[in-house]
Amino acid sequence: MSARDELPVQGAEQTLTRGHVGSPDPRPNARRLLQGRGVYIDDLRLPRLAHVVFLRSPHAHARIVRVDSSRARQAPGVIAIFDGATIAQVCKPWVGVLAHLKGIRSPTQYPLAMERACWQGEPVIAVVAQTRAQGEDARDLVEIEWETLPALVDMDDALAGNPVLHPELGDNICFQREVDTGGIDQVFAQADIVVEETFHFGRHTGVCPEGRAILADYNAAEHSLTVHHATQAPHMMHDIISRHLDIPEANVRVICHDVGGAYGIKVHVYPDEMCTAAIAMLLRRPVKFQADRMESFVSDIHAREHKATVRLAATKDGRILGFDLHDLTAIGPYSVYPRTSGIEGNQVVNLTGGPYRHSHYRARMQAVFTNKNVTCQYRAVGHPIAVAITEGIVDLAAQRLNIDPAEFRRRNLIPDDAYPYAFPSGIRFEKLSHHQCLERLLALMNYEGLRADQAQARERGCYRGIGLAAMIEVTNPSAAFYGVGGARISSQDGATLRLEPTGALTVLCSVTEQGQGTETVFAQIAADTVGISMDKVRVITGDTATTPYGGGTWGSRGAGIGGEAVLQSGRALRANILEAAAAILACDRATLEVANDAIVDRLSLRPLLTLAELGRICYYRPDTLPPGFQSELMVTRHYVPRDYAFAFTNGIQASWVEVDTETGFVKLLGHWCVEDCGTVINPLLVDEQIRGGVVQGIGAALFEECCYDDAGQMLNAHLGDYLVPMAGEMPDIVCAHVQTPTHTSELGAKGAGEAGTAGAPAAVMNAINDALVPLEARVTAQPFTPERILAALGRV
Amino acid sequence: MKPSAFDYVRPSSVDEAIAHLEQFGDRAKVIAGGQTLMATLNMRLSAPELLVDIGRIPGLSGIEVRGSLVSIGALTTHREIERSALLARHVPLLTQAAPHIAHAAIRNSGTIGGSIAFADPAAEWPACCLALDAVIVIRGAGGERRVPARNYFHNLYETDLSATEIITAIECPITPPARRSVFLELARRQGDYAIVGLALLARIDADKLHEVALAFVGAGPTPMLATTAMTALEGRTPDAETLHAAREALTRDLDPGPDLYTSAATKRHLAGVLLGRAIAQLMSGGDQTHGTA
Ligand SMILES: Cc1cc2nc3c(=O)[nH]c(=O)nc-3n(C[C@H](O)[C@H](O)[C@H](O)COP(=O)(O)OP(=O)(O)OC[C@H]3O[C@@H](n4cnc5c(N)ncnc54)[C@H](O)[C@@H]3O)c2cc1C
């Protein structure tokens, strides 16, 4: 952009400081959603729509000896029944590995189990019927003779190869990785203190308000497939459906309507969804699959289930020397396609110790196969584990050295003036603000006041505790995350902006919306950069036939990457608008500016031409424009971060709890989060993200766990027994922000979607353990149930 | 999660409803508020041929005083009980317990008759009925019978009620003003079924407890009347020694099974903690309508 294009009123630095960016604009789509006028997959009614239900394996591990569908076929409303072999003829199988996760392995996975089912909930038979109810009736009539096989449910057994789940792989290790900066044994041997702890993390899942859903509509006349899909990544699914079902890319279209929450659950390839698309082709008609709550629990990806042993070495004046980590995680029978199930453990290795200056690091992680549901990327992937390990061991060191936990962090957090900063392990930070965040947090929560309250409470036998959790977070991932590993997942995104004849602005963006408000953010950026009021902006996302190509929404990338694409596109459109205005007004373009839906004189701000008038002339009376002039009122720009692999963000959380030492109940008295996502585009939406994330993190810390028995049966696959966090138990969550914009984009926004989930479990754990210090009890296994706390106290 | 197909009738009298039940036996199911049954139907844990909806039968709902007792119609919702001024005055235990039952939306539909019929040992009303020495009024083809709650709960989900009978009312003796009540429970989330809970009634006279009634939620295959502990407390000042004896007695009275997150041993421990707290609350004034542990 030349200097001539940029006028002082709306120069590169100023544009974003006025208007909508930074202001708490309410989201335009909220009214529609709150009035129940959203459109989800289950709301779609297509002619000849058929419904598919899945018979899922009731066993964790069993061989399919014989299937008899003859009675089911006779049931009312049944259209067809498919088994694995039939579907495999039209849908190619997949293997969930990535080249940059060296050595990762996984067996080939098919849409429906072939000879063997490897987890309870794996789809085995598809029953297609006129209605869902008829499908379920018929499913009950399918008879399967099973030969049950030993179920591998324990991760230590898995590591020991006892037994080996996929004999062709030789052992149960899916992926392992080691990082060693060298010299660690010596440092630990000579350190003033070394603390060690083993942390356990329960397996849990993201519970989307809208279950997974897909409606695939095959048109035999043009060999085309239109897929209405509750997904976060429509272009990724477009590519996968095209390749696995052998339909030319041009003949596939993936459309997302409203998506009712996703949290990473809806960014993976699911066998039942691929099977539904295959069935649409086989039956040449629209077919719908809507997961119900119980099947969601045994087929949506799970996450976490880690056991991590960590050691920390420090000097006696409280300086951290190094971390030494071993993380073991169980991922189910397959590595999930295409992102793999190796990423979470990989993140744990990347992030442990991350906020702190230290010179030595050794980490070893192993991901092993088991006969439970598959695990994969769920909100904050690996962060909750890494933060809990780090902050748990840091607090233990502070306690051992008798240094206040806030002071201990002050001594060890990477200084705010130390950037750019790189760890020996290779992670690079552009600029973080740990100390600003820490001091802001301590002031916000009245740290000293709470410490005084804690001391008084203890005197009356009431045990309260403060837990701090500093964190770093991976956001705005570049191609280094998936692309370099060979995954056909776009890290770049695009935005198209079109000025309409009435002066309205249409924004088409490849980043999608699942309820978090991305469309609002894009409208704000577009309005500001073009110079248009927000009520004239309409945002369209989630349609591979109309939007630019891109990665969608995951990895805290929507605002930072999609937003920058909108910004660049808006800049370019504004330049084109000015060009057209200069042609219409026959004046020097440099004297013009766009403001408040009109072309104005840049010095007096006097309106000269409305955008509606400009649109009318350009679209309907181009004959009146100077010869040779062609207006371009539609512009597309793309953006991908390239300077850093990730835009790291940072933040810190605090939890304030009271532990009832007779019952083991934890009462959450308060929660605070100060984080730095760079430019805050919409404070309302960022705070919503933080609070929602904190609640999910508290869920992990206190409530949520997918409980399995020794036979690999999930015991709480419904919302009566799987405890999601509810409003009644949640504390007030106070949010504040430090803003350190990234210089890798003009917008300066980093991600904010996962910060809450990343830090909350560690903060709650540390608060509980702080409360229990006088009783010499500690808990390290999440979720911290009353029973686990009572056991730690020696009361049961 | 769709229920298997069933037929549906909505009789307008108890006799008509019983006629349907007589005809279908255990292939029919009564539906009242549906807050338990609908879930079991959708999960196909229950697949009746006929649903007999008693929801519109006149005369099965409402709360009224009859001499020394209060009669609560089977179709009276949890919410109506929670808000009843009559019950707050005459049977405050029910007012205290009601807010612990599920969430407002469920309390608006769920009925006391349904709760007693289903007899979940973790539910609040069954334990309250035991503590209050209430009477369950049951109608069948042979007419009406009155079963004391203390004889009604047989085993896990097994009661005195047969498949061809309908509960029409619950009769609770009026609690005299001198007799205080406390309801406490421990649930990890507001509205969940309790891990363990208790209903306690007693009259305090010169620091001594009299007419003690103590019933536990979630502490056995049925709601559990803690008779040994009741005896240990009866006529005594609840000092440390007495409380200890009462807690010890609970080992005989209670028979909790483990749940997903809590072992039987932990439940016993928690029952003892609740007992101590309930008595402390009783001594310090009782009647706290929203008693939580
Ligand atoms: C999310 C959730 C949480 C809950 N939490 C709690 C809780 O914390 N505590 C608690 O106590 N309950 C709880 N419940 C259950 C709720 O209280 C139910 O309303 C109650 O248990 C059953 O009453 P109903 O009228 O809904 O009965 P229905 O669901 O209609 O019927 C239940 C059973 O009783 C039979 N039945 C019903 N009425 C009669 C009658 N008059 N005569 C003979 N048989 C009859 C039915 O045939 C059926 O077998 C919860 C329910 C839900 C959905």
Give an overview of the whole structure:
The complex is a heterodimer of chains A (796) and B (293). With 796 residues, chain A is α+β, with helices and mostly antiparallel strands. Chain A folds into three domains: 3-35 and 492-639, Aldehyde Oxidoreductase, domain 4 (2-Layer Sandwich), CATH 3.30.365.10; 41-149 and 223-285, Aldehyde oxidase/xanthine dehydrogenase, a/b hammerhead (Aldehyde Oxidoreductase, domain 3, Alpha-Beta Complex), CATH 3.90.1170.50; 383-474 and 645-792, 2-Layer Sandwich (Aldehyde Oxidoreductase, domain 4), CATH 3.30.365.10. Helix content of chain A is 28%, strand content 24%. In chain A, the strands form seven sheets. Chain A has a seven-stranded mixed beta sheet, with helices on both faces. Chain A has a six-stranded mixed beta sheet with strand order 7-15-14-13-8-29, with helices on both faces. In chain A, strands 18-26-27-28 form a four-stranded mixed beta sheet, with helices on both faces. The termini of chain A are far apart. Chain B folds into three domains: 7-53, Uridine Diphospho-n-acetylenolpyruvylglucosamine Reductase, domain 2 (2-Layer Sandwich); 64-172, 2-Layer Sandwich (Uridine Diphospho-n-acetylenolpyruvylglucosamine Reductase, domain 3); 181-284, CO dehydrogenase flavoprotein, C-terminal domain (Enolase-like, domain 1, 2-Layer Sandwich). Chain B has helices spanning 14-24, 37-42, 78-83, 85-90, 92-97, 104-109, 112-118, 124-132, 149-152, 227-233, 240-253, 264-283, and strands spanning 7-9, 28-31, 50-53, 63-66, 69-73, 135-140, 143-148, 153-155, 158-159, 166-173, 179-186, 196-205, 208-217, 224-225. Chain B has a five-stranded antiparallel beta sheet with strand order 4-5-10-6-7. In chain B, strands 11-12-13-14 form a four-stranded antiparallel beta sheet. In chain B, helix 10 (227-233) runs antiparallel to helix 11 and helix 11 (240-253) crosses helix 12. Chain B is globular, with a radius of gyration of 19 Å. The relative contact order of chain B is 0.12. Residues 288-293 of chain B have low confidence and may be disordered. Chains A and B meet through helix 4 and helix 20 of A and helix 12 of B. Flavin-adenine dinucleotide (FAD) binds at residues 29-37, 39, 54, 74, 101-102, 106, 110-111, 113-115, 117-118, 123-124, 161, 166-167, 193 of chain B.
